[in-house]
Amino acid sequence: MLDTAKQISDNLLFPIYTEMDEKKPTKGDGVVHVHPDMKKIMKEVGESGWIVAQEDFHHGGQQMPATVYNAANFIFHSANTSAASYFGLTMGSAELISAFGSKELQETYMTKMFAGQWQGTMALTEPHAGSSLGDIYSTATETADGSYKIKGQKIFISAGDHDAVENVVHLMLAKIDGGPAGSKGISLFVVPKHRPENGELVYNDVFTAGFEAKMGMKGCPVMHLVMGDNDNCKGWLVGEPHNGLRYMFQMMNGARISVGMMSSALSSAAYYAALEYANERPQGRTVSNQDPSTPMENIINYADVKRMLLFQKSTMEGSLALVCQCAMYADLAKVSEGEEAKKYKLLLDLLTPMAKAYPSEISVQSTSQGMQVLGGAGFCSDFPLQQYYRDTRINPIYEGTTGIQAMDLLGRKVTMKMGAAVMAFGAELQETIMAGMAVESLKPYATKLGGSAQKFQEVTMKLMDLAQKEAPEVFLADATLYLENAGILAVAWQWLKQGMVVEAKLAENPTGDELNFYKGKQAAFEYYFEYELPKSIALTKRLLSDNRLTLNLNPEYLN
Question: Are 183 and 266 in the same domain?
């Protein structure tokens, strides 16, 4: 499967990566035109079963483990993250209909979506309501035929309208007339651009008001949509009324892990582009050799360039490992039973905000370091680094900003079930630390991770105490720093797991490329513990401090 994903990426996705950025979507004659190859790509991934890959067998799926699909998704997004977003969104939308939709909705929409003939989207955000979804204005009025009359606007809808498919199906949040106020009144609807009627597609009063002018990810249009402007937009309820946010979170949680994978993929692409340049670019000589008659050195021989590359490699491969760990927990939760299944679900819930936030935030830094390796060339469109940087900058914002992930982690996941998830995570850490202590060469690293884990526990206990004694604002004021610290710790845990594999493989005395591979892993592992894990010391100090600067600051002082 991974070989097939590589083949699709090599042949269809990567060749048009830059072209999709330079020739961004346009609108003419009421049609949104995207890169012409997107029609071929959607057809290929649909026919070859990638959109339906994780679905149950009786829906035509392969029941592919999330671990395998996420690894394939990493390859797709490394090749062309704009193109991969089209079919990734379609898969998530179709899976929502599969999980919660009626049999009629499944029969009407799923087959076409899984085949890549119809696009799927998430339609959540409105001009005045982003993260605060309880404040959305979009309404749904029940009609005699069981459908709902939809009215409202949605913004930031990725792949929200385009000509690479026959139809676009929006999974849209709206409030049924007379429903509860706030988030408890949100319902989920299938709202197609063209609704199926009597074997034909009829325009469903979903109007594309315009594009969002984006910094990156330009190959995938992001739309502003108006539903029901002519009082003729129909939607069909998914599941039970007023449960829309709960349903949507299934897709959002999967999407958050996907964003972590997308970020790791862009970091990987940027790393290998920077590595290629560093191996080929001669510049200057070492400080100890200033003889102008000698050949110039390739810049990969300089310590600071190796530092930048190791930063890219260690954070990227650590991010990838963390996302794969989440995917594995998702798989284990499905195939386990009882308390074991509950444990894996808890671990997945706790790690999801880390697996979204750490890879996405560090990818911005990582791709920036890749540009730095190239110097002035990195800032120019002759090389792909500037595009990787622009494309990845959206990832800390996608599917809930880093601040939202932080409040989710500290405000929900840490406190749920009396701290059961944190305790389960601590047990996983301890198991890895003890295994690392048993390997002589890894004892110093296992000891460092143990010390960081202990400090993290100390911080968590202090914040739990604050949660009981103070207003929620006090407890959550530095939630983003807590999340950053948790992400650093989680990736160090992943590197110690990899470190044990590396030591075992090196003991087999590999040679050639295999030796270089494991030595490279060893260097990235060592770099992470020497350069990245120590950052948790400063974060811990801040999190244990009683200073409440940001909480108490008068906003007028910032004007």
Answer: no
